[in-house]
Amino acid sequence: MMNIFKRKKKQKQANTNPSPGAQVSMEDKPASDDIKEEFFTNTKMKFSFSLKFVSTIIDENILQKDVLPYLLEGEFSGLNDVKSILPIADVEVSTDPSIIEQKMFNGYVLLRSTQESDKYVFIAAQKEVSRSISAPEIEFSVIGPKEAFIETLDQNLNLIRKRLPIKELIIKDFTLGTLSKTKVALLYIDGIANEENVNTVKQRLQDIDFDEISDSSFIEQLMADNHNSPFPQFLDTERPDRAAGVLTQGKLIMLVDGSPHALIGPTTLVEFFGSFEDYYLNWIIATVFRLLRIFSVVFSILVTPLYVAALTYHYHLIPRDLMATLISSRQGVPFPPILEAVVLEGTIELLREAGARLPTKIGQTIGIVGGIVIGTASVEAGFTSNVLLILVALAALASFTTPVYKIGNTIRLLRFPFLFFAELWGLLGIVFCFCILMTHLLRLTSLGRPFLEPLYPPRVIDLKDTIVRLGFNKQSLRPQYLRTEKTRRFPKKDGKIKKDIDE
User: Fold this and answer.
1) Source organism's superkingdom (predicted)?
2) Contact, 240 vs 159, CB < 8 A?
3) Which tens digit of pLDDT belongs to each residue from 340-360?
4) 3-class SS at 122?
């Protein structure tokens, strides 16, 4: 088989000393070394042509097996016949030279002929470089599918199409990034998703003017309703089953080529504390787990501020037996409670960051050994009390119960404002900080929809799948705040348990 990469390339004559003021063409500009152009002749048809391509993004096997033999030995009279002789579906004949650069850098081979200089043929020969589908790492579940999105957009779309094989599933393609030319796909179910939400997302995607989009997190930040909020306003997931599930509810999905995470919108705050594994468990067990996560988050944020407030201002509210324990634990500690708490919280954050940035095996060792050694040494040296060390460790453990990583980062950040307000005004400072937080959350929206729904505005009917998760027979209606075109998921009578014939 002939190897086109071993053929001698014909060199073009170029004027190395252009006259002053002469206009330099694209051919005269410095070209990248991976841009190749090879010249061939079909002796049977006396047809001369050239193939131009970017060698780093095309598959050489496609050229060797599916393109070159047919062009050198096939019978055709012109470029219009190329599409019929090649065993490749994606072959396009065009007369528009402005799309040459776009097509070539998307993995197409440019076919040109000296006999028909006004026509161009683009042959798809993209090289697919991707990893295999693996189990979710962040949203891992014991029960349920073990598939996760990867960095290839087409494969991710396949995972969703496999779960929703319906014509109503609409996919809209966008190209974002003036330099990266990143492919972005918007997914929704026609007839269910609210048309206003669809138009809002389309408009925001079209309005993005950024040079490089390398991950879905870029889209999330550029499309957020409030760019200065620490709360994520889109729910990201790596699970195809969760993406398919929220599409049936009437939500929208955004997939970015090169990113293994999908963006879900609009979303609410309570959805960040629900795992999709809850739907694979009995509704009573799933409800208990959700309540446990919410309690853990509140405990993680408030336990150290309450410790600081109680020891600084409200020690008279502490029971006498507990106060004796606290006094004995703080004997010899030279720092006030606020400095003691900030040092310990900062140490926990250092261990988290070090464990996340180091290789997996080393990071686990640093987290375990570092926590034990530093904690024990700080108590024995008298820098902190053992009671606060226990509380900080429990708070760190409670923060790990959130199933979505990004909301976990927000919770880690919220502790410090509460700590400082507790030092300033005690319990009153904690209440004041809580009022500031609630004011921010009440004003926050996701694609224009309330972020605190169904808590505010209060919608009792939507509580069936938020803080608690009722059985599937109780979830016949889709969430009200989505304003879906089709509100009912199934007839209500079908969700009831019917008696057997012999009962």
Assistant:
1) Bacteria
2) yes
3) 899 889 888 888 888 777 776
4) strand
